[in-house]
Amino acid sequence: MQGPAVPRVPTPRHYLMCPPQYFAVDYSINPWMDPAQPVSAKIALAQWTRLRDTYRRLGHAVEEIEPQPGLPDMVFAANSGTVVDGRVLGARFRASQRTAEAEHFRRWFTEHGYRDLTMPEKVNEAEGDLVWTGRVLLAGTGFRTDPAAHAEAQEVLGVPVVSLQLVDARYYHLDTALFVLAEATDSADAQIAYYPAAFSPGSQRVLRRLFPDAVLATAADAECFGLNGVSDGRNVVLPLEARATGLGEQLVRRGYEPVYLDISELRKAGGGPKCCTLEIRK
C-alpha cells in the first residue's frame, strides 16, 4: 500500500567520484556495452561534471580520485569500495579488464587516512552489489559478486547482510535494479525502489517482507537505468529518461524531489548516476 506524501529531509552526503577522462567502450562485459557503437569521452565528461556539480549544489561533499589510462570503467567508482561507519571493504572485480582499479582505490583510501580497510578475498564489486539501507546491507549476486562475499562483507563491516539473487543479465549489479530512497533511522524504516522482475521469486518475497511500502518500478523505469538513482532522503538524482517512465511521478507522490540529468553517454558502458558515485559513510 502506498504511503502518504510526507515531508522529506535531505541528509548531507560524502561522495567519491572519478572523472571519465579515459572513458571508452573498447570491450563488452555487460549487455549494454557495444564496442561498435561510437562513444565520446568529451560528452561523458560533460555529463559526469553536471552530476558532480549537482551533488555539490545540493550540499554534498564530493572528492575525486585521479583517473588512470587504460581503465575506462574507473568512472564507475561505486564498484570500488563499500564504506559503513568508517570501515572500508575494497573491491575484487570479476572482469580482468577492471582488476587494476581496485588497487588505485585502495591506495586512495589509505592515503586519505582510512586505516580500517580490508581488501576482499572473494569477488566483490562493492556498492554495485552491496546496498546499505541504514540497518541492513542488501547484497546482490548472480552475475558479478560471489555469494561467499556476502558473508565476508558481514564479517568485515559488522552489519547484517541480506542476500538477493539477480536473474536478468541486463541488471547485472544490484544497483541497476534497486536503490535506497531513505535510509532507516531510529524513528523510521528504510524506503527503497526496485524492479521486481530483476530478482528471483524468493528474493522478491524477501523484498516484499522487508519493504512492504517500496516503490515498485516498471520495465521502462529499469531500462533507462532509473533504478541507478542516488537519493539524499529528499532529492533523488535520476536519468533524464525517468521523467517519462512514471518513476519520477511515483517519487513525487511519496514526497521526494526528482532531479533529472542526462547520462546517456555513460549508459553506453552500462552505468548511471549511482555507478559513478561511491558513498563514504563515516
From TrEMBL:
Entry GO MF terms: amino acid binding; dimethylargininase activity
**Domain of life of the source:** Bacteria
Record's PANTHER family? DIMETHYLARGININASE, DIMETHYLARGININE DIMETHYLAMINOHYDROLASE
Can you name the source organism?
A: Amycolatopsis sulphurea
Instruction: Name the catalytic site residues.
Output: H173, C275
Q: Which family does it belong to?
A: Belongs to the DDAH family.
Q: What is the lineage of its organism?
A: Bacteria, Bacillati, Actinomycetota, Actinomycetes, Pseudonocardiales
Keyword Hydrolase: yes or no?
yes
Q: Which UniProt keywords apply?
A: Hydrolase
- Swiss-Prot/TrEMBL GO biological process terms: arginine metabolic process; citrulline metabolic process; positive regulation of nitric oxide biosynthetic process
Q: Which SUPFAM superfamilies has this protein been placed in? A: Pentein
Name recorded for this polypeptide: N-dimethylarginine dimethylaminohydrolase
